[in-house]
């Protein structure tokens, strides 16, 4: 099931997601991990909610 990662209500700690790191935005390469913290405060972001993974990497949600 794919969840829209642009809405904060769809994302929670402990969720397995794929994110795009800042340095990978041009290529669109994704990195898989588990959400530790939600960093975007607004309920919606057109490029995806920004999260910190358990391993410390930060990026925007692509898919669940």
Would you write up a description of this structure?
The protein is globular, with a radius of gyration of 10 Å. The N and C termini lie close together (7 Å). The chain has no helices and four strands. Strand 3 and strand 4 form a beta hairpin. The protein has 64 residues and is mainly beta. It has a four-stranded antiparallel beta barrel with strand order 1-2-3-4. The model has no long low-confidence stretch (mean pLDDT 93).
In short:
The chain has strands spanning 16-21, 31-38, 50-53, 58-63.
- Give the oligomeric state: single chain
Q: What series of H and E elements makes up the topology?
A: EEEE
Number of helices in the DSSP assignment: 0
- Which structural class do you get from the secondary structure elements? mainly beta
Report how far the terminal alpha carbons are from each other. 7 Å
Please count the beta strands (DSSP E, at least 2 residues each): 4
Beta content comes to 35-45%
The residue-averaged pLDDT reads 93
Whole-angstrom Rg: 10 Å
What general outline do the C-alpha atoms trace?
A: globular
Major sheet details: 4 strands, antiparallel, barrel
The side-by-side strand order for the widest beta sheet comes to 1-2-3-4
Q: Helical proportion?
A: under 10%
Low-confidence stretches: none
């Amino acid at each position: 099931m794919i969840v829209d990662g642009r809405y904060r209500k769809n994302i929670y700690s402990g969720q397995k997601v794929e994110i795009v790191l800042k340095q990978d935005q041009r290529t669109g390469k994704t990195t898989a991990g588990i959400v530790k913290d939600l960093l975007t405060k607004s309920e919606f972001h057109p490029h995806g909610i920004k999260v910190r993974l358990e391993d410390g990497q930060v990026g925007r949600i692509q898919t669940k």
